[in-house]
């Protein structure tokens, strides 16, 4: 076990500096463990290509305003029910009098209604898909950050202090773990969507995207906190912690300076997988109406809107579903690749990560 | 063993109490508006709000309000407000449909997971083994609300092979019951097959290195007998535990979404309908009953596990 002398802040993926399990034998010792992990990750072609796919998806959703302003000339929530679309010499109605929205136009109308209109409201499906993806990714990433932050702090406190602190935290996590997550997510999501939330001076409106973020963050904490607590318990027995204590380091210094850097690889892997899991959770909540509230779109709400027109316009439900699948799949594969790269001795691969998304994500 | 069961049951009661308090907090305390207004729903008349306020005693102290809520839940007085029907009755109506869906799907994924996992373990490294790895990671990444609509579109509308909407009671028309359930079953089951086969495979590969397997071979059992009687049997315990947990999660999770996709009138469909109307009493009822059910299943799984593996109840491993 090599310990880096400078306890830096939480390192970013690939960033140098943190302590790390010893380099495998036969590798030159002057290479940092992060560099070696990077090398191992790059060799994993599958993970690298899915990382590329994820980057493409991020670029796609970030380009939403560009597409909306320059190609589609409309916003995600603008209704075009009564308008007509000129395609060459032909004039097409955006929504027919029977309430049937226009199908995909691809580039026939200069990119307008590229994927057609979303419902009898006649909103541009492509623009909504891009903005909806922003919402879905934003909720996934932010709730992932909150979950990971809370989980790391709880795991450190429980694993370091042990005794009654650990008992209390572990019990709370156990109870949260045993709850049917989706059911409670729905209950909290709907209840808050009706009336908003007040945390101290902070008021969140009923329709805000921060409500699903809040709901998802609460219920996914145990899936990250429990493994981290276990790891902290194990690390607490190591000599370097004893050495730090003997040198007079206080609890904060030991937790954040000595133990935290050793958790870096676990945190990175769980953060990645947690985003994937949270995006599925958000989509499930939104699909049922307990997540993102109209008129905002997310991929989950788009599926539930599109499902009503499944017979005539199947793409409206299928495309957002495919987008969710591609995003979650790429995050899961990248997360698995990161685990292999950061901890080559780890025997648990898919099994362990499915255990993390269990009981919710494994089946959703 | 008796001590373990008693301890586990006491734990269950505590969790159930916490669950009910959480539900109380979620609906009556955490949100930021008068609770009567919220329970009455979006388009409530002032008279309705007033009557709910009196009925639920929202001017009393919180513990008293909690007792009122629990009384309502257990005495069948929880009512949805438009239409005014008992929540409990609606949930009871939906239970046969939801159980048909969850049990059938569970048996399908358990069966195929075991068959494929067994073959993958016997032929470790083969093409099926590699395929299952991909299948498993796809299974945790594909949402049911993608598979469901795709199946409906192609199998129901395109080739009209299977009917779409609704639940047909088993007692009325077994064949119709079965036909209506094939698609929802597949939607739920297909995602778990890969994962279960991977777990069984790795458990089996671990047990193959155990001494008792060598002993079994040494005493001249055929390879098939070694695999089925010794390796497979000892690898099943974790699968059964996992199944118990996932089964609860399916009833209180995946089944909700699947029922909504297929307009299948179970408990989840009722919940989704109430969400759309933003009616809280039914959601409160479904959450409480669903949570009770899941917690009870988890307790049973733990007890069954302790029965199968004495180390658990003695507290020597995996407490």
What does the secondary structure layout of this molecule look like, with pairings?
The complex is a heterodimer of chains A (364) and B (319).
Chain A: H1 33-43, H2 45-62, H3 64-72, E1 84-87, E2 90-93, H4 125-161, H5 163-178, H6 181-195, E3 197-199, E4 202-204, H7 210-235, H8 239-246, H9 251-288, H10 299-307, H11 315-342, H12 350-357
Antiparallel strand pairs in A: 1-2, 3-4
Helix pairs in contact in A: 1-11, 2-4, 2-11, 3-4, 4-5, 4-7, 4-9, 4-10, 5-7, 6-7, 6-9, 7-9, 8-9, 9-10, 9-11, 10-11
Chain B: H1 2-29, H2 35-40, H3 46-56, H4 62-74, E1 79-81, E2 84-86, H5 87-122, H6 127-139, H7 144-158, H8 174-207, H9 211-218, H10 223-261, H11 267-276, H12 280-308, H13 310-313
Antiparallel strand pairs in B: 1-2
Helix pairs in contact in B: 1-12, 5-8, 5-10, 5-11, 6-8, 7-8, 7-10, 8-10, 9-10, 10-11, 10-12, 11-12
Overview of the structural elements:
- The complex is a heterodimer of chains A (364) and B (319).
- Chain A is mainly alpha-helical.
- Chain A has 12 helices and 4 strands.
- By secondary structure, chain B is mostly helical.
- A two-stranded antiparallel ribbon of chain B has the order 1-2.
- The model of chain B has no long low-confidence stretch (mean pLDDT 86).
- At the A-B interface, helix 6, helix 9, helix 10, helix 11 and helix 12 of A face helix 1, helix 6, helix 7, helix 8 and helix 10 of B.
Which range best describes the helical content of chain B: under 10%, 10-25%, 25-40%, 40-55%, 55-70% or over 70%?
A: over 70%
Q: What's the total helix number of chain A?
A: 12
The largest chain-to-chain contact, stated as pair and per-chain residue counts, equals: A-B, 60 and 65 residues
Question: Which structural category do the helix and sheet elements of chain B fall into?
Answer: mainly alpha
Spans of chain A of at least 5 consecutive residues whose pLDDT stays below 50 are 1-19, 347-364
Order of helices and strands of chain A: HHHEEHHHEEHHHHHH
Please identify the oligomeric state: heterodimer
- Give the low-confidence spans of chain B: none
Mean pLDDT of chain A, to the nearest integer, reads: 84
- Gross morphology of chain B: globular
Strand adjacency order, main sheet of chain A:
1-2
